Q: What sequence folds into this?
């Protein structure tokens, strides 16, 4: 088992979870964080720190979020580790709690990801 970051993180990217992770398993993309399942030690510390409830144990994922297991695994191999707290995205409060944000997941610098559609970094995406 490991923990998985789901679509509620998209376009928010609060990093409170990063601060409590004892093994630096978080990786940072343009508008999303992921957990490396090979590094995660299942400590559960990150779950309570996420202000948008985006982190779940893989066994407890809602069915609609199951594809984020593979998204986390793929992107963790391509994005850099983040181990310090950074400010959330400038419009994070506007995006917090919005449903169906997967389409805005920006995978820039991540090569090809089999989970289209995504929001390209060259496309302006706005809250609906």
A:
């Amino acid at each position: 088992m490991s923990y998985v970051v789901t679509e509620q993180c998209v376009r928010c990217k609060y990093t409170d979870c990063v601060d409590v992770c004892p093994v630096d398993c978080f990786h940072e993309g343009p508008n999303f964080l992921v957990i490396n399942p090979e590094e995660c030690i299942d400590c559960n510390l990150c779950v309570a720190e996420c202000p948008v409830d985006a982190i779940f144990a893989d066994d407890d994922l809602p069915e609609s979020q199951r594809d984020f297991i593979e998204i986390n695994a793929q992107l963790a191999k391509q994005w850099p580790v983040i181990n310090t707290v950074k400010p959330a995205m400038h419009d994070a409060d506007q995006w917090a709690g919005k449903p169906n944000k997967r389409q805005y997941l920006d995978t820039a610098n991540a090569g090809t990801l089999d989970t289209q559609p995504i929001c390209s970094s060259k496309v302006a995406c706005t809250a609906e």
In short: The two ends are 34 Å apart (CA to CA). Residues 36 and 76 are 5 Å apart (CA to CA). Residues 68-76 form the longest helix (9 residues). Confidence is low (pLDDT under 50) at residues 112-128.
